[in-house]
Design a protein that fits this description.
With about 100 residues, the chain is mainly α. The protein is built from three helices and no strands.
Length: about 100
Amino acid sequence: MTFSSSMSVEEYYLLKRFPVPYALYFVVVATVAAFIGQHVVRKLIIILGRASLIIFILAITIFVSAISLGGVGTSNMIGKIEQHEYMGFEDLCKYDA
């Protein structure tokens, strides 16, 4: 997974579609968030005495992201239907032989 993401980064950089300042900002934010999250989870595991907390955090994260993606997709689809935009579907009743 690291190899494919690294290749994507190089591809975007070579195509001049890679905003380096934004990338550096996100690297810093992600690194700080990872250290803070690791520290907080370690403290919670020590307090609660249960390592299964990590599994619950992962499950909640996956659930929230699935609901969010579904909501965004539904919202986009409703907007396209209201504006009568083409969504890639053909009329099933129409048959041109």
